[in-house]
Amino acid sequence: MSSPFSATRIDLRGARLGPLEPACCQSLAEAIAAIPPWSTMNYPADAMARFLVSSADGAYRYRIDAGGDLAGAVSIRQPWLKGPYLELLAILPPFQNRGIGADILEWFEREALRAEARNLWVCASGFNERALRFYQRHGFKQAVALPGLVGDGYTEILLRKFPL
Predict the structure, then answer these.
(1) What is the DSSP secondary-structure string of 92-161?
(2) Is residue 80 a part of any domain in this protein?
(3) Is 38 domain-assigned?
(4) Rounded to an integer, what is the distance from CA 101 to the centroid of its chain?
(5) What's the half-sphere exposure (Cβ side, CA atoms, 13 Å) at 110?
(6) What is the pLDDT of residues 54-110, one digit of tens each?
(7) Quick count: other Cβ atoms within 10 Å of Cβ 55?
(8) pTM given for the model
């Protein structure tokens, strides 16, 4: 059975998810690395570009388009601990607060339910209170704090939602 996240184009209310072509990865990576939480942790744009362009790791990666403009990126790892893991949700500042993130989470949960997933997973930096509140508003609960996971002095918060 193919993954519910293997579709190449997904239409949402305020945006569209589509293939993440290598040609746009460097400029997108630079834009993502310039915003929190990545800028706070001095995450290198080149490392983000390598992550975005990678296809060998089994993740499903999408570009986010809004109004015909590149608005961010999404990466989902499936399978992962009895359900999908939203490992990256990066929406560029001009496109934030438009409901795009909420639309993506609704799609993420809908597809996980279709695949009869037991869990939904996301992770956010402990200092990223805005992201933590966002995920909690959408029903995610803290599962564990992971100090030093991505960098010394930073704690990542793994959050879980039971969709069933």
Answers:
(1) -GGGTTSSHHHHHHHHHHHHHHHTT-S-EEEEEETT-HHHHHHHHHTT-EEEEEEETSSSTT-EEEEEEE
(2) yes
(3) no
(4) 9
(5) 8
(6) 876 778 999 999 998 999 999 999 878 888 999 999 999 999 999 999 999 999 999
(7) 10
(8) 0.90
